[in-house]
Amino acid sequence: MQITISKRWRQTIRATLFTITGLASLVPVSATYAAYPERPIRLIVPFAPGGGTDMISRLIAEGMSKDLHQTIIVENKPGAGTTIGSDEVARAKPDGYTLLMATFAHVVNPYLHPKLPYDTDKAFAAISMIGHSPNVLVVKPDSPIKSVKALIEAAKQKPGTLTYASQGVGTSAHLAGEMLESLAKVNMSHVPYRGAGPALNDLLGGHVDMMFGTAAAVGPSLEAGTLRALGVTSAERSPKLPDIPTIAESGVPDYVLDAWYGLYAPAGTPADVIEKLNAAAHKAANDETFRAKVQGEGLVISTGTPKDLDDYIKGEQARWKKVISASNITLD
């Protein structure tokens, strides 16, 4: 049976559809994210597996997954001093499904690598700080170097021969060594790796003399007695390592450096998605299980608002721009 629709009815139907389409366009874009997240989220870690950043990322992802009722998959994208992983997030769709665990390198890379593939200040949206921890200067238990003072003396006697490992160029561990060289007026050799795990393996294997590792990365080895701590890079002694002096009190005045961990999304991510992620990160980081696991590694939990993270980063950028310029450190 053929149904014939009059011209008048066709016009009425077209007008109705036009009205519906117009109303739909007036719905705020953020409303489309009301059900977020509807599929698994990727958390990019710009380091190799096995280090402190990888461990903290996996623990925070586990906690946030429970709150968001969606899987968060940790993907390690090491290389180029965190630039490879960071660039992947910078280029990702700003829908909340690709996140970055940023660290100290996020602050200093613009001053070390003038030709970054992204603009750090414009490419990312802050979600939340997770926490801070010192770096720890460690050696093997049988190392003849027993203190920071002894290390400086040895470095002055044999310039350029002592080697220190880091989890990559431009990381807090790398700049910790550069700062020591600058303030103590010594010359050592930096050996970068694609993550704290590989760096630790070579230190334990005797291929490098020392390492400035995050407390989270070197904590298990210190507890096991397979590494020995000489000093911490923070302004005050670490609650986890109260018997280990700061490098500043060991004869290098003004020496201060903190490692940190913060969550970011691509710039343009809807505000309500950022809000959901911030709430999930805060809840996960302050969970007793998470605290018990990471505070044992020296991490001090310090979550807050996206603005809190932005303000902290601005302060660090101003400080490290001066340090890097004064030390004449260039990597390109």
Automatic annotation (TrEMBL):
Family: Belongs to the UPF0065 (bug) family.
Coiled coil: none
Pfam short name (any one): TctC
Protein name in UniProt: MFS transporter
Superkingdom, natural source: Bacteria
